[in-house]
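W.,

You were right to be curious about this one. When I first looked at the sequence I had no strong expectations either way, so I just let the prediction run and decided to look at it fresh. Below is the sequence, 317 residues in total, followed by the output.
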Amino acid sequence: MSDIVTFGETMLRLSPPDSERLEDADEFEVRAAGAESNVAIAANRLGADAVWTSKVPETPLGRRVVGELRSHGIETDVVWSHRGRQGTYYLEQGGTPRGNNVIYDRENTAVSTAAAREFDLDPIRNARVFFTTGITPALSSTLRDTTANLLKAAQQGGTTTAFDFNYRNKLWSPSEAKETLTRLFPGIDVLVIAARDARTVLGFEDDPRQLAHRLGSQYDFTTVIVTRGSEGAVGWHDNVVHDQPAYETDTVDPIGTGDAFTGAFIARRLDGDDVPTALEYAAATAALKRTIPGDVALVTADEVETVVSEQAEDISR
């Protein structure tokens, strides 16, 4: 039995070095990048036995993705496809005022045709946690059904279901996202959502503490985590809201910060931590991720422990 099984697309990320413009780049760094695999890796780095499952093209690029994920220590359980392509995205990084620019190239990918019947559902039914995100059902109508069916299978097996709302405006509109994702809510135990997404998609203008309580009460979640960027996060559980500030960090690469946070939170909850403690470790992991290039939180448990301990010492002074 695995601690956590995640499902979703992992792309190849291509980015010019040194904040060069895409239109002028002569070379690209290539890394595997996907919210669900990022969460699996972060959880694994903090001690959870993690599996990433997906549908992947039987091509050199598909094998590159699977090989890289395996190199990070997680198990991969994939359906190999001879149809469809490997999704990619291009990232141009720039400082203020230019900012970052992301260009997706993920049409007609193998994963967009993935149906629940193609997968062995026993690993999901037998896992302690099943995790996916709102990115996955945004990719195709087929994946909307698949996401719902996998969440249902997990709950039928007694598996805790965790879901990151993860709205992407380059994939669908707020109204489309609201219609689809709220239909999934009955199949979700633990919800992670950015305050900005709750405003944009759900129309909730509450402050984060009120928002966490409102979501938990209205949709009968077990746990709700509302992230609020540089201000940290709040967690609602057992009708109590807990505040967690963000830890100070130098930002080398912000991509994947939220995934690092979520993976660490799940891992620590699986290890028996209460919600406030798990939030501390999640915030520390997110801070460390921002110092690391790429989407993946290549942290160690000892590094995370050090950040948490140092923060506690600062507070006690």
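Here's what jumped out at me. Residues 141-156 form the longest helix (16 residues). And, maybe more interesting for your project: DSSP finds eleven helices and 13 strands in the chain.

Coffee later to discuss?

I.
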